[in-house]
Structures are given as structure tokens and as C-alpha cells.
């Protein structure tokens, strides 16, 4: 969430920023009205509480009927005001929750995904001496993806990964982990991209896939977009849509020392999404499914380094895709396509020759202090001042790159070659 003092001091700036993200600027006015009402109520309570304390002091000295009567009246007034203050505060918080993070100044302004900007295209698209097929046609013929049996077991938008497809997932995970745990590898990427940032490696994590309401709210996914989340009502727990949600809540209500930052994690988890907003879109195959596996980077970093950290995450994603020799393009996500927590976001879209289209396989977002403020995650700087950390997240691999590999590495005979970068890991797993 945004800093309340910042909203009070910069209402027009906040209105302008959230309007770019398709949020109603009137939210700011509503919040400020409730904020002013709340502050007035708090002042009245403080004054009444002071009067009540003075009266009690007099009562201790002189127990008269007038003082007793006054004490009773003041107590009733105080109880009523405190109830009113609590109600106003809850409504004020509800409005604050709906105000999204502000986009960074260099984020392109646009209404929706159609106005995202192509930053660059990388890699040579494969040339075939035959008409390339889409991943599903190839995978079903090879018997490595089965959506028909998954439909019988679980319904639509599920799939079985079998044989080569399953081995490809494990190979991708091992391939990526080896690099993210290598200090020299991180250092080379930093040097290549002229980044002024730490070369700390990532700590591997297998996080919970169920988190509580406070945690999911803290990550910024309940006030907006809650219809995408699976909830276990009896337990009031939520299935994560990405490891980001459980990694980000790992340090809630904690304080880092400055020298502990950045704190980098790479988490592997099964993810669950209702895909409520995508009816009729990519329903064929397993591109948009209710369940998939994902390897996710997450970092807690100091505010002054979060933009560099964001660039590092993108650079890592690109380096891994280049090793796989999959053509891709990098997208700068416009304001209208940013989620509530994100201040800036980059996507990587892999080339799918069978469909003659680019499709998103990776994303990385800088959420600044929006999530940390909700989760109360701070660090102490060199002066001893406590500040909120910034959070950065990014995809390492989901299951979508498997589909890109199938299409880019297909053979005329209907088989699939294994990328050279994965061959060592793939052989070990066979």
C-alpha cells in the first residue's frame, strides 16, 4: 500500500499515477475525506480521554455525586467515539487498500496489453523445410502431453506431462538452479549489463502452497484480482498463484540489517490459478491452466537498488533463454497492464513457430515498498533509521518454456531435439 503521508502531501500526483493504471482517481478523494474524519475523531478522543483522566484524578481526591456522574457520562461518550473511530478507520483502510502502487516515471503510458512496448527482439527464428506444427499437435502425437485424460480426472484446463515433457521440466529446474547458485555466473551477468549491484547468489526454497488471508492480502492480491485465487473456505487458506506470494510473506513483521540486503530467494512451487478473466482465451492445450509448476526469483532489497535489482532479474531471464537458444522479445509493460502491486514490469515472450506468434513465458516486476508496507518488512540503514524494503520478483521457468522448446526444436519426422544447454541434465534424468 502507499504511504499515507505521501497521499496527504501529494494527492494530485497520486490521482494522476493511479489513473494511468485504470484506477478511479476519486479513490484518493474518498480516502482523504475518511482520513480527515478519522484524524478529527482521534483528536476528539484524545481530548475526551484527557478530560476523563482529570476527572478520575479529582474523584480519587473527592468522591462527589457530580464527579461520579461526570465520569459515567465521559465514559459513555468515550466508548461511543472509540466505536465510531474504529468504524471510520476500517472504511479508511478499505479505501487505501484499493489504491494501487504508482507506476515508475519511465513506464510507458497505455490502456491495455495492446499498448505494451517492444524493447528488443533477440535470437534468430528457426527456419524449417517443412510446415512447423504447434506444440499440442506434436506433444499429443508423441504422447508427452495428455489433456483428454486430465479432463476426465480434473476437468478443463489441466494436463498430464509425460515422459520427455516431464523430464524437460526437471532439466530446466536443475539447469537454472545451477546458475542461480553460482556467484561467478551472477557476477558475469552483472558485468555484462553494467549493473552496480551485489553478486549474492539465490537461496533455494520450496515454500508452502497454502497461505493465510493476512499473507495473501499483504502481497496485494485480495483487494483486486481475488477472483483468480482458489480459497479453501473451511480453513480460510489460499492456494498460491506463484511462489512470489509465499516467498514475499516469509519475512513479514521482520527487520533486516542493511548488510543482509539484497536477500535473494529462488522458490519452486506448484501454482494454482482460476483464470477467471480468460474465458474463451487460449483454452486449447496447456498454455492457460489451473495448475502448473514454476521456479520464481524473489528479492528483498534497499530502495536505492531496487531498479538495478529489477534489471538484474530481467538480465538473468534473458541469459537463460539465450542459452536455450529460443528466440524471444522483451516487452515493457504499460501502465494499464500493470497489476496493483507493480511499479514497473518487463515480460519476455518466446517465439512459437508452430503458431507464428510470440507468447509470454516470463515476467519480472518491481513492487517498490507496496508489499513491504502491507507486510511490515523493514531494514535499518547506516544511521539506524528503519525503512521499508523494496520487493522484486521474476520468473525463472514455468511450464510454458517447455512448450516453446517443443515448437522450436521440432523435427520433420515429428520428434523433438533437446537444447544443448539441457542435454547434460536431461541425460542424467533419463
Low-confidence stretches: none
CATH top level of the largest domain is: Alpha Beta
CATH topology of the largest domain, anyone? BirA Bifunctional Protein, domain 2
Q: If you average the pLDDT, what whole number results?
A: 94
Largest sheet: 8 strands, mixed
The helix-strand sequence is HHHHEHEHEHHEEHEEHEEEHEEEHEEEHH
Helix percentage range: 40-55%
The secondary-structure class comes to: alpha+beta
Q: Can you say what the CATH homologous superfamily of the largest domain is?
A: Bira Bifunctional Protein, Domain 2
Shape: elongated
Tell me the strand percentage band. 15-25%
Whole-number total of structural domains: 2
Tally of helical runs: 14
> What oligomeric state do these chains adopt?
single chain
User: How far from one another are the termini?
Assistant: 47 Å
CATH architecture designation of the largest domain: 2-Layer Sandwich
Care to count the β-strands?
16
Strand order of the largest sheet: 1-11-12-13-16-10-9-4
Radius of gyration: 26 Å
Write the layout of secondary structure elements.
Elements: H1 4-9, H2 11-20, H3 26-61, H4 65-98, E1 117-122, H5 135-142, E2 145-146, H6 147-154, E3 160-161, H7 164-180, H8 183-192, E4 203-205, E5 210-212, H9 213-218, E6 231-232, E7 237-239, H10 244-247, E8 255-257, E9 263-272, E10 291-301, H11 306-324, E11 328-332, E12 344-352, E13 357-366, H12 370-375, E14 378-380, E15 386-388, E16 390-397, H13 400-408, H14 423-429
Parallel strand pairs: 4-9, 8-14
Antiparallel strand pairs: 1-11, 2-3, 5-7, 6-7, 9-10, 10-16, 11-12, 12-13, 13-16, 14-15
Helix pairs in contact: 3-4, 5-13, 7-14
Amino acid at each position: 500500500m502507499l504511504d499515507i503521508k505521501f497521499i496527504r502531501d501529494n494527492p494530485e500526483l497520486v490521482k494522476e499515477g493511479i489513473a494511468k493504471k485504470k484506477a478511479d482517481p476519486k479513490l484518493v478523494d474518498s480516502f482523504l475525506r475518511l482520513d480527515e474524519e478519522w484524524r478529527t475523531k482521534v483528536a476528539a478522543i484524545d481530548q475526551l480521554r484527557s478530560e476523563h483522566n482529570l476527572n478520575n484524578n479529582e474523584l480519587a481526591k473527592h468522591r462527589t455525586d457530580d464527579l461520579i456522574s461526570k465520569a459515567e457520562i465521559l465514559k459513555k461518550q468515550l466508548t461511543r467515539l472509540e466505536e465510531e473511530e474504529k468504524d471510520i478507520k476500517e472504511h479508511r483502510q478499505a479505501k487505501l487498500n484499493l489504491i494501487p502502487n504508482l507506476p515508475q516515471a519511465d513506464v510507458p503510458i497505455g490502456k491495455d496489453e495492446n499498448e505494451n512496448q517492444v524493447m528488443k527482439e533477440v535470437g534468430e527464428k528457426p527456419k524449417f523445410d517443412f510446415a512447423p506444427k504447434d506444440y499440442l499437435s506434436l506433444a499429443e502425437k508423441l504422447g508427452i502431453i495428455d489433456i483428454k485424460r486430465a479432463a476426465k480426472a480434473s476437468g478443463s484446463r489441466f494436463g498430464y506431462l509425460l515422459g520427455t515433457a516431464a523430464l524437460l521440466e526437471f532439466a530446466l529446474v536443475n539447469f537454472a538452479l545451477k546458475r542461480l547458485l553460482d556467484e561467478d555466473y551472477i557476477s558475469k551477468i552483472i558485468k555484462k549489463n553494467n549493473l552496480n549491484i551485489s553478486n549474492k547468489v539465490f537461496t533455494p526454497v520450496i515454500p508452502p502452497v497454502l497461505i493465510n488471508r493476512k499473507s495473501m492480502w499483504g502481497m496485494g492480491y485480495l483487494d483486486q484480482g481475488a477472483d483468480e485465487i482458489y480459497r479453501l473456505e473451511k480453513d480460510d487458506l489460499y492456494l498460491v498463484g506463484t511462489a512470489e506470494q509465499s516467498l514475499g510473506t516469509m519475512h513479514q513483521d521482520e527487520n533486516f540489517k542493511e548488510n543482509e540486503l539484497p536477500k535473494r530467494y529462488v522458490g519452486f512451487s506448484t501454482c494454482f490459478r482460476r483464470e477467471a478473466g480468460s474465458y474463451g482465451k487460449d483454452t486449447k492445450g496447456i498454455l492457460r491452466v489451473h495448475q502448473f509448476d514454476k521456479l520464481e526469483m524473489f528479492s528483498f532489497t534497499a530502495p536505492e537498488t531496487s531498479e538495478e535489482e529489477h534489471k538484474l532479474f530481467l538480465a538473468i531471464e534473458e541469459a537463460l533463454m539465450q542459452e536455450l537458444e529460443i528466440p524471444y522479445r522483451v516487452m515493457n509493460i504499460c501502465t494499464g497492464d500493470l497489476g496493483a502491486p507493480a511499479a514497473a514490469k518487463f515480460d519476455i515472450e518466446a517465439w512459437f513457430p508452430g503458431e507464428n506468434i510470440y507468447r509470454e513465458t516470463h515476467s519480472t516486476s518491481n513492487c517498490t515498498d507496496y508489499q513491504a508496507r502491507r507486510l511490515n518488512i523493514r531494514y535499518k540503514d547506516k544511521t539506524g533509521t528503519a525503512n521499508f524494503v523494496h520487493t522484486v520478483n521474476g520468473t525463472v521457468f514455468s511450464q510454458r518454456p517447455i512448450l516453446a522448446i517443443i515448437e522450436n526444436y521440432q523435427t520433420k519426422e515429428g520428434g523433438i531435439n533437446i537444447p544443448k544447454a539441457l542435454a547434460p541434465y536431461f541425460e542424467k534424468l533419463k
